[in-house]
Amino acid sequence: MASRLLLVADTHVPKRARQLPAQVWDAVEQADVVFHAGDWVVPELLDEFEQRSKQLVAVYGNNDGEVLRSRLPEVARVTIEGVRFAMIHETGAATGREKRADANFPETDVLVFGHSHIPWDTTSPGGLRLLNPGSPTDRRRQPVCTYMTVLVDAGQVLDVELVTVRNRLRGPG
């Protein structure tokens, strides 16, 4: 049976947004598995994701302090519907990313990452799919805030969709 995945990263609550938009929470609750690629900022957001997600796969980011780092790994690995996923917050510069990912994640079908706030969907020379969902709260130089949904079944990635956040909530300042 197919699994619906939600990919989010760089939520930066409460620094870049006071809270996540309702649209994102709705997506969390609809997903079979939620991936969060780091930069939570506060552990309370992790607590809420743990409560609302059917299954949560999570890593810490460069903006996450000791409490989050003590609860989360730098790299997470999971197999869902026969698809081997790895997730890390930061992969380095865009130039050469695919080759580095091939070298660093050889036993992986899909690498999920964040950090740049720039949506990314490419396939490496070795066949590794690289996905960055952007940020649902801090678009930086992007036109809109985003997250991704993914459908996997029987060892295949069937669909990847970049979703625009319609009502972004602004943070303090």
TrEMBL record:
Keyword Amino-acid biosynthesis present in the record's keywords: the answer is no
Report whether Metal-binding shows up as a keyword of the record: yes
Class of enzymatic activity (EC top level): hydrolase
A GO MF term: metal ion binding
- Boundaries of every Calcineurin-like phosphoesterase domain copy: 5-153
For this protein, what is the EC number? 3.1.4.-
- Swiss-Prot/TrEMBL cofactor(s): a divalent metal cation
> InterPro entries, per this entry?
Calcineurin-like_PHP_lpxH, Metallo-depent_PP-like, Phosphodiesterase_MJ0936/Vps29
Keywords (alphabetical) are: Metal-binding
Alphabetical list of Pfam families matching this protein: Metallophos_2 (PF12850)
To which protein family does this belong?
Belongs to the metallophosphoesterase superfamily. YfcE family.
Q: Which PANTHER family match?
A: VACUOLAR SORTING PROTEIN VPS29
User: Record's NCBIfam families?
Assistant: yfcE (TIGR00040)
Q: What is this protein called?
A: Phosphoesterase
Starting at the broadest rank, the lineage of the source organism is: Bacteria, Bacillati, Actinomycetota, Actinomycetes, Micrococcales
